[in-house]
Amino acid sequence: DKISWALITGSSGGIGLGYAHHLLSLNFGVIILAHVESEVKAAESKLRETFPDGEIKCVVMNCQTATSKQVEGLVKGIEEEEMEVRILINNVGGIPMAYPHFRLFADFAVQGIDNHFDMNARFMTHLTRLMLPQLTRNAAPRSLILNMTSASYIGLPYLSMYSATKAYMRGFSHALSRELKLESKPLDCLLIVPGDVLSDGNCVAVEAGSPDAKTYARYVLERVDGAIERGLLEISPWWKHALQIMVIGWLP
């Protein structure tokens, strides 16, 4: 029998790698996608330490610079290899510019602005659109899109472009989720809102009590079914993150 696959962007480390680890434990095949070949291979080696016979496919692609044709080629290649992808996790994201990452909006260069859109918004938008036919066709009985955003969507000073792209992801994800329901598609879309998580890219001055990436990914995946059954558009599954986001909403 064919297995079900999950395509996870930005998954050579951090939460993305945590997703891959947990999905392999559930007998999914995983497609690891990131932009540095050595890091992708290292991620595969880590996963095979626990899952030596796991179905793992590695894809090297720079999500910031990939053209629409390259994204189309990625999706076509998945289809040609007859991998039945039922889960798409749009996890790639970051602050793609030189330090300092915290700066006044007036001090942004043109390239820094464009890089934020390309990495955090443009790639996931094109990939999601192109994957919809496969996800719909492979639904057994349903498929899933998880979109990773950040609590910074509220609009943080000195992180204007990062906040803006994360707010874009939130609006896009909510709209797509409602659209899929209105069209009665066998496909669910859920936004994930993390707070502080100990990961490869966030390992300095991490708040006490924050989960590591593998733990956080497991928390998300264990709570997806319940969130969808309740008709939620987004979840923040780690209790401390949820509480922090709630309190922020009360502040003047």
Describe the structure.
- Belongs to the short-chain dehydrogenases/reductases (SDR) family.
- One of its GO terms (biological process) is fatty acid elongation.
- This is NAD(P)-binding protein.
- The protein is α/β, with parallel strands linked by helices.
- It has a single domain, classed as NAD(P)-binding Rossmann-like Domain (Rossmann fold).
- Helix 6 links the parallel strand 6 and strand 7.
- Helix 3 packs parallel to helix 4.
- The longest helix is centred in the middle third of the chain and has 29 residues.
- The model has no long low-confidence stretch (mean pLDDT 93).
How are the strands ordered across the major sheet? 3-2-1-4-5-6-7
Radius of gyration from the CA trace?
A: 18 Å
Largest sheet: number of strands, sense, barrel closure: 7 strands, parallel
Give the CATH H-level superfamily. NAD(P)-binding Rossmann-like Domain
Shape: globular
- What is the number of helical segments per DSSP (H or I, 4+ residues)? 7
The termini sit apart by 56 Å
- The residue ranges in which pLDDT falls below 50 over 5 or more consecutive positions are none
Helix content: 40-55%
Topology:
Layout: E1 4-9, H1 14-25, E2 29-34, H2 37-50, E3 56-60, H3 68-80, E4 84-90, H4 110-138, E5 143-148, H5 160-182, E6 187-192, H6 213-229, E7 234-235, H7 239-250
Parallel strand pairs: 1-2, 1-4, 2-3, 4-5, 5-6, 6-7
Helix pairs in contact: 1-6, 3-4, 4-5
Describe this protein with a few key phrases:
252 residues; alpha/beta; Rossmann fold; seven-stranded parallel β-sheet; 7 strands; 48% helix; 15% strand
